[in-house]
Amino acid sequence: MTSPAPIAEPQETPRPEAAAVPALATDGVSHSYGPRRALMDVSFNVQPASFTALLGLNGAGKSTLFSLITRLFGIQTGRVSIFGHDISKSPGEALRLLGVVFQPRTLDLDLSLTQNLLYHAALHGISRREARARAAELLDRIGLSERAGSKVRDLSGGQMRRLEIARALLHRPRLLLLDEPTVGLDVKARADIISHVRQLVTEQGIGVLWATHLFDEIVAGDDLVVLHQGKVLAQGPVSRVITEAGAQDVNTAFMRLTGAQTMPGGGA
Ligand SMILES: Nc1ncnc2c1ncn2[C@@H]1O[C@H](COP(=O)(O)OP(=O)(O)OP(=O)(O)O)[C@@H](O)[C@H]1O
């Protein structure tokens, strides 16, 4: 993948006073599926220009949380705000600033790369001309310009993920949610995706919430939220979470926090 260049968005250059408003704030969020409690009093923030890893085992509640933030589900208890816009009270303003890459692939396999992007741009009310320019720019950035007219079906898994990230960025969001985006990818494709998303943080100031169960996707300097059985067990800069758990690394900190004994497949 070619190195992504920053999108020129002069009007969205982070201002000092804007840094005080979290990109994402969840406050006392709880959710139940009938009698099953999936999330309990979940509160944490994602800052602009930060990479926040949401670490949890299968069933921790990560996808449920994403469904609430994206308004797929209505909020039962608590509040979610995106750059200060409450998603229940001001959904238009909030969702305009949000880009999402869901865990299941959602591309149309029989359309071309460009067609997939244009279709999504139309949903966001972006003019055809502007959409074409943005699609070309994003395809260039993810190193897939030469495949613009190919059917998505012919791409590799890693290329599809890159295209999904490009699609999520078409409307120039300031907060990006990714739900276990590297599942099923090989080592090289995983590294490419992670490095691409980290560049979006450092070069464009995008706030990222990255759901994962893999420790090796988390590095010093990230923010970390440990979600376990629907509860936030720890949050803060990775180094602080490790220190407060009396551990030397994320893996051990996670095990101490959750009381887990063994970690399957090198992940949490
Ligand atoms: N539609 C549903 N109906 C009933 N229970 C559900 C439903 N969706 C999720 N759950 C339950 O809610 C809890 C949280 O699931 P969720 O899918 O949010 O976790 P997750 O961390 O995303 O896990 P995974 O990585 O496996 O997707 C689990 O106990 C799950 O069984």
UniProtKB/TrEMBL annotation:
GO molecular function per UniProt = ATP binding; ATP hydrolysis activity
Q: According to the lineage, what is the superkingdom? A: Bacteria
Q: Does the keyword Endoplasmic reticulum apply?
A: no
ABC transporter domain mapped to chain residues: 24-254
- Give the record's keywords alphabetically: ATP-binding, Nodulation, Nucleotide-binding, Transport
Q: Is ATP-binding set as a keyword in this record?
A: yes
Its biological purpose is as follows: Involved in beta-(1-->2)glucan export. Transmembrane domains (TMD) form a pore in the inner membrane and the ATP-binding domain (NBD) is responsible for energy generation.
Q: Say which family it is in.
A: Belongs to the ABC transporter superfamily.
Q: What is this protein called?
A: ABC transporter ATP-binding protein
Q: Which organism is it from?
A: Bradyrhizobium betae
